[in-house]
Design goal:
heterodimer; A: mainly beta; six-stranded mixed β-sheet; three-stranded antiparallel β-sheet; B: mainly beta; four-stranded antiparallel β-sheet; 0% helix
Chain lengths: 111, 123
């Protein structure tokens, strides 16, 4: 099972919006509405930011939103803030050799 | 407070075994599937294994299938990962993670994570 494809890095200025893509196949992203997104600050455990494509857990800022079209899911961060600088990973439930497959990860830099 | 605390990591020679544990508190452990996810130094996340609430279903990444065994003891609120025939490429920080939904394995997300335990496989 290959990792989902994410851009290695995305950057933006404070207040701007950025979007991170996550591309898979019909066996994972395209086949199920079980895409989730995780934020990971250096030296910290991942934190769930979005589940089931577009749902936010309690306590997560509404500046974070998720969507999906075909085999590509996206995470949008609006009103970018310094604290959003972190690594972001998508993951999807999959029907092939791995139950879940993670994305390659995206480093978000706030300029 | 919901808490997952991993232990059991360390330095081990290739070919040897190690058993990781994850002690859980703050929620009804036997309602939820649980998972292991690892992260090699400087690399991304990799799903390793999962187990359903009642141990009735388990699953593994191809990279560890046949070498790793996931288990749980609901009476002790604990999750385990038995790792045999370890390889240098198994070197990573191993996280345990809780399923967001109650019930079976898969089709969900990981809503609570531990801080991880480091495994280094080297001679």
């Amino acid at each position: 099972q290959s990792a989902l494809t994410q851009p290695a890095s995305v950057s933006g200025s404070p207040g701007q919006s950025i979007t991170i893509s996550c591309t898979g196949t019909s066996s994972d992203v395209g086949g199920y509405n079980y895409v989730s997104w995780y934020q990971q600050h250096p030296g910290k455990a991942p934190k769930l930011m979005i589940y089931d494509v577009s749902n936010r857990p309690s306590g997560v800022s509404n500046r974070f939103s998720g969507s999906k079209s075909g085999n590509t899911a996206s995470l949008t961060i609006s009103g970018l803030q310094a604290e959003d600088e972190a690594d972001y990973y998508c993951t999807s439930y999959a029907s092939s050799s791995a139950l879940y497959v993670f994305g390659t990860g995206t480093k978000v830099t706030v300029l | 407070e919901v808490q997952l605390v991993e232990s059991g990591g360390g330095l081990v020679q290739p070919g040897r075994s190690l058993r990781l544990s994850c002690a859980v508190s703050g929620f009804t452990f036997d309602d939820y599937a649980m998972y292991w996810v690892r992260q090699a130094p400087g690399k991304g996340l990799e799903w390793v294994s999962g187990i359903s609430w009642n141990s009735g279903s388990t699953d593994y990444a191809d990279s560890v299938k046949g070498r790793f065994t996931i288990s749980r003891d609901n009476a002790k609120n604990s999750l385990y990962l038995q790792m045999n025939s370890l390889r240098p490429e198994d070197t990573a920080l191993y996280y345990c993670a809780k399923d967001r939904r109650t019930g079976g394995l898969g089709g969900s997300a990981f809503d609570i994570w531990g801080q991880g335990t480091m495994v280094i496989v080297s001679s």
